[in-house]
Amino acid sequence: MPVNDTVSKWVTLPLRKRLTRFAREDDGLVTILALFMIMMMIAVGGIQLDFMRHEMERSRLQAVSDRAVLAAADLDQMRDPKTVVEDYFAKSGMTEFLSNVVVDDGLNFRTVTVDASKDMDTQFIGRFGFPTLEVPAHSQAEERVAKVEISLVLDISGSMATNNRLGEVQNAADIFLDTVLKDENQDLISVSLVPYSEQVNAGPLIMDRMNVNRKHDYSHCIDFDNGDFDSIAMNSSTRYNQMQHFQWNYDGRNNYRDDTVCPRYDYERITPFSQNKRTLKNQIDDLVPRAGTSIFLGMKWAAAMLDPAFRDINNSLVNAGYVDREFYNRPASYTDSETLKTVILMTDGANDNSYRIRSNYYDSDSEYVHWNKYNLWWYLRREVDSRYWGYFYYHKYNKTLGNTLLSNICDAAKAKRIVIWSIGFEVDDEDVPAMQDCASSPSHFFRVEGVELSEAFRAIARQINQLRLTQ
Question: Domain named Putative Flp pilus-assembly TadG-like N-terminal: which ranges (predicted)?
């Protein structure tokens, strides 16, 4: 038998029969499908596990970001907002995941935005070309107040006549008012204007509503005790002394009496709680340099007019039609989260000497009239032996005491969360620390020359201009 026939008979035909039978056989197909499905389930489960881990990590990172921005945006906390965010991430062991912190900090608001991310190693989907997954987090928080109470305190002392300083102040104040008192801020922002020199002219509208030991009608200033600068409130139970009306400065060669210690003209009076831009501008434009400098007295009045104890006086002014009804019940309580209280305190110099007539020469109607008629030094030079001059007057304030009282009232205001901006306009180096100490922070103090004053006022006003009613 040929070899080919033998191979066909004993190999090819049996193999063909086995293959045909195998092709027709369906045993084991379910097992193969089951194995395939199991492999797919394992793969899908692995992918789901990676995504579950991704979501867990994202939730942890997002939670830390949310807590951090809420704490940092709190206007009551005084730490740097960026530092607050960084501390939250550090204490959570996530410092390396913090990507970016943006702080938008205005006078009446704070917005904090945080971006964070980390790369998570995958266990399953890395086999498909994804060895890591990015875990992102984005948070933003804002705290904003709806109302602002401003005390604008302007130095009008005699040195303001130098280098057109008062003119620069008038220009800067106009810019400030134009920027702050916009239509969209109507009935939200009040400005109390406090011009000061050696004293502050409260004016009859305010003084008539205070508990004051009145002595005359020539002028309207209060002589505070030193202890009054330890707190900012003017208490109705306290009986304040009216300032003597007289003039001591100048050398006494003539009977000059135009610069009495207490300012007495209408345009020198405090204007309380106003939003009338034109009226405020007109008053500021009328100011003229005069007398000495008592920064601490300007600051005392500025702070007192932001304290709730002043509310009864203001409400009486509202009822009498002197203050807009929208400002009834101002100053707001310190616990009012919708109201920001701020002082802008400006000077071109330093606290100065100030004298008073001894009480035994200022205790009768005839003596009040007498010292209204005569300059103190002129009278003493003409009528009193120089050996007895000291019996007539005493030294009430000097620079050292004035700086101490300024520090005390500024500290009392800051303790009540009043924001203080201070501006040293062409001041000497030795006078910078007193104004820096008064400001709420180093960034709240401006030392400026010439036209830089307008930029300082503009920078402060821009932040108030961010004000919007958000509730």
Answer: 29-73
